[in-house]
Amino acid sequence: MSATATSEPILPTGQTYADVTDQLASIPLHFPARRRWIIALLCSSLLLGLLFVAITVLFASGVGIWGLNIPVNWAFAIHNYVWWLGIGHAGTLISALLLLLGRDWRNSLNRFAETMTLFAVVCAGLYPILHLGRPWFIYWMFPYPATMDVWPQFRSPLEWDIWAVLTYLIVSIVFWYIGLIPDLAAARDRARRRRWQIFFGILALGWRGSAIHWQRWHHAYRLLAALAVPLVVSVHSEVSLLFAVGTIPGWHSTIFPPYFVLGAAFSGFAVVSMIAIGIRALFHLQNLVTDQHLDILGKVLLATGLMTAYGYIFEVFNAAYSGEAHELQTLHDRFFGQYWWSYWGAVFFNFIVLQPLWFRSVRRSPWMLFTIATSVAIGMWLERYMILVTSLYRDFLVSSWGVYHATFWDWAIYAGTIGLFMAPFLLIIRLLPVISIFEEKEVLRREQQEQMANA
Amino acid sequence: MSRSSRAPQFDFDRIRAATSRKQFWSSIDELLDEQGLREWIEAEFPAPLSVHDKPRRRQFLKLIGASLLLGGLTRCGDRPANHALPYVIQPEEEVPGVPRYYATAVAFEGYAQPVVATTYSGRPIKLDGNPDHPVTRGTSDVFMQSAVLDLYDPERSKIPLRNGAPASWAQFETALSGLRESWRNRKGEGLRILTGATTSPTLIRQFRAMQEAYPNMRWSRCEAIGHAQQDEAMSAAFGRVLTPHYRLDQCDVVVSLDHDVLGAGPRQVAHAQAWGVRHGEVQSGLGRMRVHVAESVPSLTGTVASTRIPVDPSRIEALTHAMAAEFKVSGFARPDLQPGEGNWLDRALRELRNSAGHSLLMIGPYCDPHLQALAPAINAQLGNVGKTVWYSEPAHVPDATQPLAELTREIANGAIETVVFIGCNPVYTCPGPLGLANQLARVPNRIHAGLHADETAALCQWHLPLSHALESWSDARAVDGTATIMQPVIAPLYSSRSAHQIVDMLLGSGANAANAAVRETWEQSFGEDFDRKWIRSLHDGFVDNSGATAIAVTPNSLVPTQTSSGTNLEVVFRPDPCIWDGRFSNVAWLQELPKPLTKITWDNVIEISPALANEHSVSNGDVVEVSIDGRKIRGAAWVIPGQAPRTVALYFGYGRRGGAEIAIGAGYDAFSIRPNEAAWKATGSISRQRGHRLIATTQAHHRMDGFDFVREVSAKNPRLPTQQKAPTFYPDWNVEKSSEKNSPDHAWGMVIDLDLCVGCNACVSACNVENNVLVVGKDQVSRGREMLWLRVDRYFTGDVDNPRAYFQPVPCMHCEKAPCEMGCPVHATVHSPEGVNQMVYNRCIGTRTCSSYCPYKVRRFNWYDYRHFEAAEEAAKNPDVTVRSRGVMEKCTYCTQRIQAAHVQADKENRSFRRDEVVTACQQACPTRAIVFGDLKDEDSAVSKRRRSGRHYVLLEELGTRPRTTYLARWNDSPDEEK
Amino acid sequence: MPDSDYYGLLAEFDTPERLVGAAERARGAGYRALDSFTPFPVYEIFPVLNLRDRRVLWLGLFGGIFGFLLALGLQLFTNFDYPINVGGRPLYALSAFMVVCFELTVLFAALTPAVGMLALNGLPRLNHPIFAARNFHRASRDRFFLCVLASDDKFDAKDTRRFLEDMEPISVELVEC
Q1: How far is C110 from chain A (nearest CA, A)?
Q2: Are the beta carbons of C82 and A150 separated by less than 8 Å?
């Protein structure tokens, strides 16, 4: 049994199964906080609209509308792709890894963490398509018997990415839905209006909580969790190979896979914290997402942050130790070059701002944690930018050095994907149980048992 | 925001400190921790939405394009374009898709540039030097390469214009008949005809005839650049105008006083070739050729020289006088020189004398005649005459040095009744002070014939479209005097006439067959057996033994002149290396061609020395004003390392006001402040103005300590150190092994000899033409999106005031371990069995991974659908090369279409490849033979031989990409390398 | 004797512990066709009801193996079918192929158990006799039901009901087919 659970209960044990069920199931059924929700949805819909405009212009005239050039022919599209994917990973880690480790507190977070993963991956998955010079030929990356008898090229990191991201998306959806079924049943049984009964009735697939069902469900769910963890690691490692496979100084390094995976978890946990705090405030779930949860999130954030910092240090060490002139040149450019702000910005937002988390009071104060998490999200965005652009804009031959500056359309599409992330997320929390009902009840039961044991 | 307010200040102590040790750097900005560059970047991405603008020309081209295409197909001037028909009966021997070759020539400043035109279905698509011709020997320059686009220029004038309104030739004929009447009555009094410089026997004959018909008319030749001063100097030296011919291949020592002998111009190809013969590997017994240059403005010659000093024009004068004094030319005394100049001069003198008979002194054609006149005397003393330099009667018709001055004077006196301009644009090229534009209106009858309705046409009642050289019959002499009979390779696209036809009209000898005039000329000289000789000459592309012959002459003694004391600020004028005097303003290929030394496109700049920039605290792009006795022009300043401290260089050809749609608004008009036609330098002043201009360069880069992209050998250590192997998991590699795996037959490779490259850009423009490389416009270039498959990198090392400069052509390296291919997810870039790194356009989906992974950044991407730019130029496209569409990566292919053609030919003839049978476009164009391409599996192929040279090295070898394109190190002949 | 008119008898309890106790007694009384309905998995009851179906896990294993072989085969075949020199790299670059192999392994190892779980559970099935039970909607809330299926040999509407009521459930209900 988990240390956190024994030391002190995560959930107030006063409440009954019925309370938990009714409270959570009632969120979709009798939705509170309509106004705030509508406003949020409106804003994100606007961003979504912007995305559609930007994509239309993009497809109409070509990637030239971005600030790209030779040598910097990868920028926003790729680094936002990496950023979004990284955010997605935390959801899977929380819900799968912590499930395997038997960390009960994850039960309050896993549902929306997974939901976040879904839409983060959707945003990420959009970019490789927009990025293409001829997006309408994206399907050429898949193996099918083509007329010219040509197949995809499986030595290419991009090819790996397509498979990795698709696998990740599918597995995430399945994992999310399998975990959701029992709650859908619960919602179905609480629903009084016909509309809702049909809606949940169909989604619940007729789940009735029979013992043998539970057993098989348990096997499947655990197995999925066990697969999801290595999957996350592999996916972001592959993303890092997108760079590490190239010979470009600043990319061609073996530190990249772990460096990227940790960075991903880091940024992901930051966003999870933001959402947790947001939802908890929105639906008054202090009794389920407790300060205890924030405390733990803060610790995780601090830990992953420090690991990422190690990646930074090692990168510098790498370049210095190699003594390779071009590597040193790139390092110098990162520190003092055109884009110095992206490097020092990353250092500041990721690590300096992170330090208050050493204090318990800071970790337990929602708004401070929220601020720090936001800063980390920004910091990791800068880091991705830095890794990409500061390596490309000055590679080997000085004659081909150039500069990149994002244009309006670069920003428009990035802002648009935020809308693409928010809008469906808001719809989901409106329509489905935002926190896992039955898993909460499991925790409650275990804690009540322990209380009795202690008493 | 106003950039001028935050313009970076040059701190020259820092720069000198930075450049004291040997290190590569390439623009002033980089020495300033990129201050200036930040300005440049802000200019580069002004407003997000402006990303969208396309050059103004685009719409225009769209409209004009289709009609032009039809016009091109009808191949008949007067028929309306919409009657285009395909072949009904296919002409014999005309196989679509199989090129036919015609020998002819295009004229440049009156001199024939002998070419072989490649035509598909009657469309010339590429010109290359005529391999049999003694001058070109198959090589070419940028102007020759781009002449095709001049032919297909959508803005060429298409029908006669009367006061700007469309008219017909018939109408002109009627108008003309009246004029002829009055000319006859007044014996041509008040009739003035201006043409460009000409060497055409036919035109000369015609004008003689005309002179007889109208005794008092005057015909003068006005060339904005030309060599009027050289003629003057020659007549000063010899009493009559002669043409000097240099034989650089015979020189052991060349001393050049401000003479860019390798620079752009009618003689560039000839000179570069001869120079190339003498360079490269050390020839046994001859040793290295030494070139010592003193120049005010950095030039190609200065770049490849053994020693070079930057001196202001006034000091050039001093040096020349000192030189003369040393050679005891009567009346010349050695003025006191600064130590640097003194040392340079003494070494030059020493070497000139040591290799007397194999040395050459050249004094620049832009120097004052009385200076140039000294060269013959000195060369005579050295016994160089007949060996390294010889003289001949001029092929061109010499002229009063200042025809335009004369013209304006006469107009002022009201002496002129009719003025006819044929193939020249004096209203634009006329020096501002003469004010021809204002005067011209006072001439009652004004007629202009030209390719474009240009500034001059705008001020004439009649504008007549002139046929392009490739459309018309004519003749001309090459720089060596060899005559070429120019035959049309395509029927006139528009209702245009050749100069000969127009002169016939002026004469009233009626409209004859297009080639009548030319035939007549040569009937006289060929005599009987005309047909055979005529056919032969047309076939060969030149008339046998028509070359100039050396004549023995002795220079007169000269009247010495006073050395003008060094003035405050000296302004020099130079032709633009890419668009010359503006005659090529409308050739997009040339506009987008990076200027050899600045890598600037689509613009001209005011070039100033670092010292001057420091003094006026200006940096690249800042607006400065140059004024010469009251007349002012404003342009963007550009700091040129190695420019003489007190010298400001202005370039002709920009600031066009008409006749060149794509050039209007670009740059400044240097003609407007040129004191007079003969003036190549003037004293003036420069002042910093508010504002900053966006200048599009293809190379803006930074300090680069210790890298060795360009390697050097010297007499001291003539071989490069052999690369010690880095530990690797890869199996050891050699061409044979690696290509056995690939193909049993061939392994294509290229070796570029950096000691032979003079950075003339011929290879780049040849590549553009051969491979349908798209023009993207200034805006895109300024965003770093130029499309050049082959770029010539330019580096500097050492002292900012007199750096050592390098050229390095960089095509695709065709790596055997190509990082780019690894990255492509769809097999769009793969390796051919013969080792060519191939790009499959129609498979490319535009992930751009290949370019990200490419260490040499030689790949180019179609960010937009750039094909819009060339609707008008369809006819000029090479049908063997795909025109790339939007979203597709592209790059150098080793001219794979030529390799395939050779394969087909060999298969047809059932034989294996001949040695060095395949020639790439760049290699073919290169006048110095710096580029060599061939089969690495053939031990004795030129490329294999070069690979065995001690100077052979691989760019970025440490990356283990195993390039097929490699380099030969450049020789460093500077004296300090030898001790 | 089995009774085909009924689905079974449903006893409602308020805690998992009492449910498990009841189940044990039912087993002791010789009932075999038992099932329980709970709002969350009550692991203690699995052994009591003698559930040992591990097929889902096996499905996962087979799925994984299938995915791996599929990916490897695909990549080997495509390079065999379209052999071309890419950057001088080996044609059958196993190290590079492993990435996609891993992905497909995970993909199929995840899909098969998920789908298999639903299939084995006979889901989706939107209508089920048990839903007719009066209080059954609380099975997803806070009640724990024990069900003696009518298919049980010892099942008898009266006796079994009496047997269940002895355990003082909150309610006992006869569920019809």
Answers
A1: 6
A2: yes
Inspect the interface and report whether the beta carbons of A150 and C87 lie closer than 8 Å.
no
Read off the pLDDT band of C70 (50, 70, 90): very high
pLDDT range class, residue B594, cuts 50, 70, 90: very high
Write out chain C residues lying below 8 Å of A227, CB-based: 60, 106, 109-110
Q: Strand order of the sheet with strand C34-37?
A: C34-37, C144-149, C6-13, C171-176
Q: How far apart are the first and last CA of chain B?
A: 54
Chain B residues near residue A396 by CB distance under 8 angstroms: 855-857, 956, 959
pLDDT at A47 over 90: yes
Sorted by sequence, the CB contacts under 8 Å of residue B908 that are 6+ apart come out as none
Residue B362, H or E segment: strand B359-363
How far is B403 from B401, CA to CA, in rounded Å?
6
Instruction: State the maximum Cα–Cα separation within chain A, in Å, rounded to a whole number.
Output: 77
Test B823 with A157 for CB contact under 8 angstroms.
yes
Treating both helix axes as pointing N-terminal to C-terminal, what angle do A291-322 and A325-336 enclose, rounded to 10 degrees? 140
| Structure tokens belonging to residue B64 | 């004009």
Q: Which residues of B12-31 are buried (b: 16+ CB within 10 A; e: fewer)?
A: beebeebbeeebbbbbbbbb
C123 contacts in A (CB within 8 Å)? 205-207, 213
Q: B184 CB near a chain C CB, below 8 Å? A: no
- Interchain proximity B823–A162, CB inside 8 Å: no
Dist. CA A200–CA A206, nearest whole Å: 9
What residues in B contact C99, CB-CB < 8 Å? Answer: none
Confidence of residue B154 (pLDDT cuts 50, 70, 90): confident
Distance from CA of C84 to the nearest CA of A (A): 10
Rg (CA), chain C: 25
Instruction: Please choose, from the candidates B218, B222, B224, B226, the residue with its C-alpha nearest in 3D space to the C-alpha of residue B193.
Output: B218
DSSP per residue, B376-445: HHHHHHTT-BTTTEEEE--SS----S-HHHHHHHHHHTT--SEEEEES--HHHHS-GGG-HHHHHTTSSE
Instruction: Tell me which DSSP letter residue B622 carries.
Output: E
Best mutation target among C19, C55, C99 (most A Cβ atoms within 10 Å) is C99
pLDDT surpassing 50 at residue B39:
no
- For residues A197 and C131, the answer to whether their CB atoms sit within 8 Å is no
User: Residue C87 and residue B822: Cβ atoms within 8 Å?
Assistant: yes
Average pLDDT over every residue of B652-656: 91
Q: What three-state secondary structure class fits B218?
A: strand
What is residue C140's DSSP assignment? G
Q: Which chain C residue has its CA at the smallest distance from A148's CA?
A: C82
3-state secondary structure of A342: helix
Q: Which helix (H) or strand (E) holds B682?
A: strand B681-683
- Give dist(CA A346, CA A344) in Å, integer: 5
Q: Among candidates B770, B759, B788, B738, which has minimal Cα distance to B963?
A: B738
Provide the sign of the torsion angle of the four alpha carbons A161, A163, A166, A169, taken in this order: negative
pLDDT band at B68 (very low <50, low <70, confident <90, very high): very low
Chain B residues in contact with A407 by the CB 8 A cut-off are 45, 48, 51
C107 vs A: CB within 8 A: yes
The answer to whether the beta carbons of residues B624 and B688 sit under 8 Å apart is yes
Judge residue B794's burial from the number of C-beta atoms within 10 Å of its C-beta, 0-12 exposed, 13-18 middle, 19 or more buried.
buried
Q: Which of B20-24, B854-858, B885-889 has the lowest mean pLDDT?
A: B20-24
Q: How big is the A-B interface in CB pairs under 8 Å? A: 180
pLDDT > 70 in chain B, percent: 86
Global model pTM greater than 0.90: no
* Touching partners of A (3+ C-beta pairs < 8 Å): B, C
Which backbone phi and psi does B165 adopt, to 5 degrees? -100, 145
CB of B848 within 8 Å of any CB in chain A? yes
> Of all helices (H) and strands (E), which one includes residue B116?
strand B111-120
